[in-house]
């Protein structure tokens, strides 16, 4: 007999409270350090000035346009990478000979830093959206592909052969045997890829100058608008936290049936 493990509300509330206290402490340090002369205000303005700059930026259409550009590059690049990686992972992982043939190629290409492709991206697409998509897709693709390959390898061979003996079609074996086993791995890959995709989107905009928050950060830095620069950096950080929370929430909801999420214990 099994029963779901329940989270401790008091512990969760205490963790959230400690997190809020830590954030408040960080803001206090950033506020006091430049005012007390511990750091130069030209390089680190007080938190109040950063907040004021953030409020000012939020009132301009240019800020929301840049935010939209970043989210479009992130979401489109992530969607392309996830779709391609899931398809490639299932095909490669399901055919042992193909898995052996591609293993060395995957291990060679996967460690190549996406930023090393910036010159190629600029040559191909200039400062347009395509350059950002190239970097985002390349970085996110490997995060998902590797997890899908692990998921396919984790399929119970007895279950797979049983489905074959019951004359399940190839699609039926994938749908009813392979996919349920690989799905938790897929979600892990998507969660990792979502964060990596945002990092590469901001990096491409910052270095290449393609439209988005990264470009606005570079413009603020070049014009010595330091509070605005920090305000935009804060926005990218908040965006990363939101994406991670949404990915974790989606994973828990869509995998509520899986034991790893339910956290079942024997009683």
Automatic annotation (TrEMBL):
<dbReference type="Pfam" id="PF00528">
    <property type="entry name" value="BPD_transp_1"/>
</dbReference>
<keyword id="KW-0812">Transmembrane</keyword>
<feature type="domain" description="ABC transmembrane type-1">
    <location>
        <begin position="67"/>
        <end position="247"/>
    </location>
</feature>
<feature type="transmembrane region" description="Helical">
    <location>
        <begin position="228"/>
        <end position="247"/>
    </location>
</feature>
<keyword id="KW-0472">Membrane</keyword>
<feature type="transmembrane region" description="Helical">
    <location>
        <begin position="12"/>
        <end position="30"/>
    </location>
</feature>
<dbReference type="InterPro" id="IPR035906">
    <property type="entry name" value="MetI-like_sf"/>
</dbReference>
<protein>
    <submittedName>
        <fullName>ABC-type nitrate/sulfonate/bicarbonate transport system permease component</fullName>
    </submittedName>
</protein>
<feature type="transmembrane region" description="Helical">
    <location>
        <begin position="182"/>
        <end position="208"/>
    </location>
</feature>
<keyword id="KW-0813">Transport</keyword>
<dbReference type="InterPro" id="IPR000515">
    <property type="entry name" value="MetI-like"/>
</dbReference>
<feature type="transmembrane region" description="Helical">
    <location>
        <begin position="133"/>
        <end position="153"/>
    </location>
</feature>
<dbReference type="GO" id="GO:0005886">
    <property type="term" value="C:plasma membrane"/>
</dbReference>
<feature type="transmembrane region" description="Helical">
    <location>
        <begin position="71"/>
        <end position="96"/>
    </location>
</feature>
<keyword id="KW-1003">Cell membrane</keyword>
<keyword id="KW-1133">Transmembrane helix</keyword>
<dbReference type="GO" id="GO:0055085">
    <property type="term" value="P:transmembrane transport"/>
</dbReference>
<comment type="similarity">
    <text>Belongs to the binding-protein-dependent transport system permease family.</text>
</comment>
<feature type="transmembrane region" description="Helical">
    <location>
        <begin position="108"/>
        <end position="127"/>
    </location>
</feature>
